[in-house]
Amino acid sequence: MDKLSAKEKYELKKSEKLERKKEKDGTEKTNGHGKKFLWAFILVALVILLYLGLKSIVKNNTPQGNDFSRSVPSAGRGHISVGAVLPEGTYSSNPPSSGPHYPSTARGGFYDIGEIVEDQFVVHNLEHGDIWIAYHPGISKEVKNILENFGGRYVLVSPREKNESDIFLVAWQRIDGFSQEELTKERVKDFILRYDNKGPEQVRGGGGHQAGIAN
What is the DSSP code (8-state) at residue 211? Predict the structure, then answer.
């Protein structure tokens, strides 16, 4: 290199400098592409996770099975005094899903065997859009434990001697009765999803409150 002229040395250094610049630019370009790919991958992953999350929410809030319930004609909405004697045939279903009821509602939640709740209190709950799960005291402990998990502020679970089936799911003018052997969590969840907060007297607004459906 000592034999090179000053001009040749200058040109050589210039060439080496250009090569280093090309290498640097290439590295930065490669790194830039890598970062863009990484961000694109993260964005796609987030979109997929968001889609799966929304899909899960929609699924959990959409009835998945058949509707086994039946519509019941209205028996009215009038208030009666506590303890009033009603004539035979006052209600259009057993348990009642509409009709004369007491001025106050019953507490939501689970009632164990021996804790009696009069129908006329619960009918008022139904008018407000609550769900009533009426079970016969003769059901098994295992089935009773399953039903207990559905009890909540807007879902009343109570024993009822007058039941003609082991279990009744009741909403305003809607009823589904079946044996304890036919009980599935999905059947109860679907009923709640379909008919919760559908009473004629809206006291909770229009959003609904599917108490117990996560069980």
Answer: T
Averaged pLDDT, 139-168? 98
Q: Which two tokens stand for residue 196?
A: 């919760």
Cβ proximity of 175 and 165 under 8 Å:
no
DSSP category for residue 79: B
Tokens of 164: 């003609």
End-to-end Cα, the chain, rounded Å: 84
Per residue in 56-84, pLDDT tens?
A: 444 557 888 999 999 999 999 999 999 99
Q: Of 96, 92, 121, whose CA–CA distance to 106 is shortest?
A: 121
Q: Which of 103, 106, 93 is nearest to 172 (CA)?
A: 93
Backbone angles phi, psi at 58, to 5 degrees: -60, -45
Answer for the pair 156, 111: CB distance below 8 angstroms, yes or no. Answer: yes
In angstroms, rounded to a whole number, what is the distance separating the alpha carbons of residues 48 and 42? 10
C-alpha 150: how far from chain center: 12
Strands laid side by side in the 174-178 sheet: 70-71, 174-178, 167-171, 131-135, 155-159, 109-110
Beta bridge partners of 74: none
26 band by pLDDT with thresholds 50, 70 and 90: low
CA distance 24 to 37: 20
For residue 86, give the 3-state DSSP assignment: coil
Is residue 158 within 8 Å of 135, Cβ to Cβ? yes
Q: Read off the amino acid at residue 56.
A: S
Per-residue confidence band for 8, with pLDDT thresholds at 50, 70 and 90: confident
